[in-house]
Amino acid sequence: MLRMTLGAALNTGLRTAMEKDDRVIVMGQDVGALGGVFRVTDGLQKTFGADRVFDTPLAESGIVGTAIGLALRGFRPVCEIQFDGFVYPAFDQIVSQLAKMRARSGGAISLPIVIRIPVGGGIGAVEHHSESNEAYFAHTAGLRVVSCSSSDDAFHMIQQAIESDDPVIFYEPKRRYWEKSDLHQEASLGLHQARVVREGSDCTVVAHGPTVATALAAADAAQEDGFSVGVVDLRSVAPLDLETLREQASTSGRVVVVHEASTFGGIGAEIAASITEACFYRLEAPVLRVGAYNLPYPPAKVEDHFLPDVDRVLDAIDRTLAY
Amino acid sequence: MTVLAAHASWIDASRREPEGPLAPLQLVAPDGSLTEHGRAYGVDATLASSLYRDMVLGRRLDSEGLALQRQGELSLWLMSWGQEAAQVGSIRALRPSDMVFPSYREHVAAMCRGITPGEIASQWRGVSHSGWRPDDRRFHIYSLVLGTQTLHAAGYATGVAMSDSDEIVAVYFGDGAASQGDVNEALNWSAAKSLPLLFFCQNNQWAISTPTSQQMGAALHQRAAGFGMTSFHVDGNDVLAVHAVTQAAADHIRSGGGPAFIEAQTYRRAGHSSSDDPGRYRTNDEVASWELRDPVTRMEALLRGLGISDGFFGEVQEQADQLATEMRAACRSLPRPDLADLFDNVYAEAHPTVTAERRQFLAHRASLEGV
After folding, report:
1. Is B13 within a domain?
2. Among A3, A111, B36, B259, whose CB has the most other CB atoms within 10 angstroms?
3. B162 & B291 share domain
């Protein structure tokens, strides 16, 4: 068993995927000599050459659009979008081209493309560098959307995403890049399975990406007050692992969903509706959501009040226990 | 006090005014006579007859498409009338192995690549979002979001550049699409990476109701220079000139010269689509002036001047009518899709939401049977 940072695990996962399959290529802004602004692609160009790891012009639509052309030629591109807020210039290429081309062609075209996006706040960044936009893509048929929260998942999920014949939006929790955790040789779950990180009988907190650690901290705090709070790491935002969610909701009867994105129209709303439909008579309380307020991402000095923290998660747990 | 000179020559040394547009290359004048360049280049009568035949067939396919729309057999048709020379001249100058990315009005080019009239009609009849497999005839499916396909072509060309192949890639787009960010990203990208990519712009003068004069401040072939790319300007209604220029551009690209840009001046003689009403935004005089420059009558005049017999023209017309009959029959017999099948083509691998919803749809449909 190895122990490494989440960023290093991604780098190792990419390296492994490129060794296994020479159709895998890495492209994006500054992913070559620099190794990406977060160094996730560090050293890959040196190992695999400038044909397989290359810097693109500074144009996000171009990154995704050309990746589509490369996939049509038989490659398996892994694109880096430098920051979450910079993905919007590529929105058409992702939503209207990448997502739909398989269906448009009656299944004749596969586009095995991974779009890596460092996501979320908490690093004191300037605007457009802290967003959580998973709901936009989760809403689009034809895309798969996943979110890793640990080094082990980062290492295995990036390889599983690359092996998928479908397009995958791959979210990386940027404020967790430097956190170390254990990495196992074998993948313990499929790409679209949720992980029960902690069992709990009183309430289940569902989180993904950067908020999994927040949920675990809240569960610890609740335990000190005598409550057994479980935590589910979604890992896959689309499709959702509804089976695991139903099981956990049926066991505890109380669910709190946490994410960094705004709650309105967010993935939490989808989870709340799905759980309510499937487990109505097993629920003790309505499913509650904890997310960002419905504001544009605020200046960094006040982001701590904007993002869901342990206190807000605990508050939601308290409210759900009060029913 | 410092005195600033009003007109310092050293400032002028740093200044560059945009260069003017080139005159479009023409080999055959609108009356069918050879221009000076045409006489110098010469005419291959076999090629000219063959290009003429494709233009007539393509025009007939287009007019049948519009007729089918007017009769309610197609929900929409995007007319290619007037643009036959631009499409036939360019695609016929490429190798069949060169991958082509069309926009959505390239019916004539598609036909030249062996896409059948039924396959072309499929999208417009509302039975599919594309009518053909793109790989076997090296002709990608249509792109309806303007200009997006230029980036797909640039990516494909990036892949070609990584191989030993001497293939090139060609992408079609129009004057309106040239305003899109994607097109300009693709131009920049392919110049920066020296990709084997031909940009073929059919400037048909109108983006629905917006004329080129309101679309851009410099002619399109001039823009290519700013990206660092070789460009050509051609009379897009002169099929021999389009063929010659495309061949020259393809040779340039194939020999490692990097991407090239062709601006073909043509005219969308009909409306943007079967739903459009061009009488609201352009004059009859303008339409009439382009009728005089029509690509098909021009070639017919040239061929007749070369002594091609009436028999040939009669035979081509007969083939065109056969094609129209074939298109009508194929269009009307296109199978209506089953929504249940569409669930299968969204993802390559199993997807629980899709599986569950397909089941729900089938159950709902079954529940209505016999009601």
Report:
1. no
2. B259
3. yes
Q: Looking at the structure, do residues A149 and A252 belong to the same domain, yes or no?
A: no
8 Å CB contact between B51 and B92: yes
Whether residues B129 and B227 fall in one domain: yes
Asked about A208 being catalytic, the answer comes back as: no
- Residue in chain B lying closest to A75 (CA): B159
**CATH number, residue A233:** 3.40.50.920
- What range defines the domain where residue A203 resides? 195-321
Position B5 pLDDT exceeds 70: no
Residue A268 CB contacts under 8 Å (≥ 6 apart), including other chains? A206, A257, A258, A259, A289, A290, A291
In a domain, residue A189? The reply is no
Distance from CA of B166 to the nearest CA of A (A): 14
On the CB side of A168, CA atoms within 13 Å amount to 31
- Is 0.90 topped by the overall pTM? yes
Chain B partners of A143 at a C-beta cutoff of 8 Å?
none
What pLDDT band is residue B18 in, cutting at 50, 70 and 90? confident
**ipTM beyond 0.90?**
yes
Structure tokens at B258: 């990097």
CATH, residue A30: 3.40.50.970
Is-contact A34 A28, C-beta < 8 A? no
Residue A156 inside a domain? The answer is: yes
pLDDT at position A69 = 98
Claim to verify: residue A31 and residue A139 sit in the same structural domain: yes
For residue A191, what are its two tokens?
Answer: 């790409």
CA distance A233 to chain B (A): 18
Provide the chain A residues 229-258 that lie in CB contact (below 8 A) with chain B.
238-240, 242
What confidence tier does B6 reach under pLDDT thresholds 50, 70, 90? Answer: low
Q: Which tokens is A218 given?
A: 């809240």
Overall domain count for chain A = 2
CB-CB under 8 Å, B349 with A66: no
DSSP A298: P
Domain span holding position B361? 338-371
Nearest to A65 among B151, B344, B348 (CB): B151
Domain total in chain B = 2
The minimum CA-CA distance between A59 and chain B, rounded to whole Å, is 7
- The answer, for A72 touching chain B at a CB cutoff of 8 Å, is yes
Residue A62 at interface with chain B, using a CB cutoff of 8 Å? yes
Q: Tell me how far CA of residue A183 lies from CA of A153, A173, A197, in angstroms.
A: 8, 17, 15
The CA radius of gyration of chain B, in Å to the nearest whole number, is 23
**Interchain proximity B154–A62, CB inside 8 Å:** yes
